[in-house]
């Protein structure tokens, strides 16, 4: 990243790696954690499986949004910097919006499933094994879809960084 100011390098690193890390973390929950929860060979009370999921969920709901906000800040700085230099900046706004889109997706699309699983973890809805398994499978699919938002943000941010490097080195 020769020729780029340190602040640009830091902002790009925070934005792109934050988005990529968030995407990977989300995807691995769907690819590894939920199938692991559902792969028990001996009977497990559905509330116990829901409680295990709730433990994962409660950790993720703290760390995921923090990482999304860090990415948002990195991309916002890059957009501001490019706009103030008269260079294309919309790509970084797009990266920011796509990366942070996991928040409204979670609230609007995933919340009913999240709430049902949290209630199952508390024993409030007396769901059987099959119902809890179906909720976990639904959550797994929705969560995997959600993981593509920050991945797309990271790709767009990387594209913007490469273009910025070309402008800086090429004198455009």
Written overview of the protein:
The chain has 172 residues and is an all-alpha fold. The protein is built from five helices and no strands. Helix 1 (6-38) packs antiparallel against helix 5, helix 2 (46-84) packs antiparallel against helix 3 (90-100) and helix 2 (46-84) packs parallel to helix 5. Helices cover 85% and strands 0% of the residues. InterPro entries: Anthrone_oxy (IPR013901). This is DUF1772-domain-containing protein. GO terms for molecular function: monooxygenase activity.
What topology does this entry show?
Blueprint: H1 6-38, H2 46-84, H3 90-100, H4 102-122, H5 129-170
Helix pairs in contact: 1-2, 1-5, 2-3, 2-4, 2-5, 3-5, 4-5
Mean of residue pLDDT? 93
- Measure the end-to-end span: 16 Å
Main pleated sheet: none
Shape: elongated
CA radius of gyration is: 20 Å
SSE order: HHHHH
Which structural class is indicated by helix and strand composition?
mainly alpha
Q: What is the count of structural domains?
A: 1
Helix content: over 70%
**β-strand number:** 0
Number of continuous helical runs = 5
Poorly predicted residue ranges: none
Beta-strand content: under 5%
Subcellular location: Membrane
GO molecular function: monooxygenase activity
Family: Belongs to the anthrone oxygenase family.
Transmembrane segments: 63-80, 92-110, 144-162
């Amino acid at each position: 990243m020769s020729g780029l100011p340190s602040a640009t390098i830091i902002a790009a690193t925070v934005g792109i790696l934050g988005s990529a890390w968030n995407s990977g973390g989300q995807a691995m929950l769907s690819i590894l954690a939920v199938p692991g929860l559902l792969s028990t060979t001996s009977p497990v009370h559905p509330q116990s499986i829901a409680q295990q999921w709730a433990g994962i969920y409660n950790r993720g709901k703290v760390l995921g949004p923090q990482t999304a906000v860090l990415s948002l800040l990195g991309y916002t700085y890059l957009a501001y910097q490019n706009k103030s230099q008269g260079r294309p900046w919309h790509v970084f706004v797009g990266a920011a919006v796509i990366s942070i889109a996991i928040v409204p997706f979670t609230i609007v699309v995933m919340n009913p499933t999240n709430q049902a699983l949290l209630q199952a973890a508390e024993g409030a809805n007396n769901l059987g094994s099959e119902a809890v398994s179906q909720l976990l499978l639904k959550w797994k699919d929705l969560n995997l879809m959600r993981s593509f938002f920050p991945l797309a943000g990271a790709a767009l941010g990387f594209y913007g960084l490469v273009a910025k490097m070309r402008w800086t080195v090429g004198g455009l």
